[in-house]
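fyi for ur records
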Amino acid sequence: MTEGETTGNGSARDGGPETAPKPLSEKAVEKLNENIVKLGTRLEAMNLAQYIELTNKPLKMVWVNFLSGLARGVGMFLGAGAMGALAIAIITALTYYLLNFFNMIPVIGEISKVVMNVVKDFVATHKK
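which gave:
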């Protein structure tokens, strides 16, 4: 074979004969249209345009991330404070009631009375 000859079974890229693409059936076109519509609704739901706009404006992105980080930090601070206060209240009440229970035991009861007085003083001073 010489340089200009082809085998006749190659593609257009290989220098072979060009073949026209087969036309799609109506069912395939409808399915393709449905998929394109689904893709469009998903892209709209993702707010892709707003995200791209945000990435094109770095200062706005920094500001939005700063505000979201600030909100998370304040939320964690308030949540940890509330949970800490609740834990201290539960531990104090539990200790008080356990010391009352141990007052019934002879040897431990004397030690329990001393500790209970300390707890009562602590609760009285911090109740205000």
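The first helix runs from residue 26 to 45. thats all i got for now
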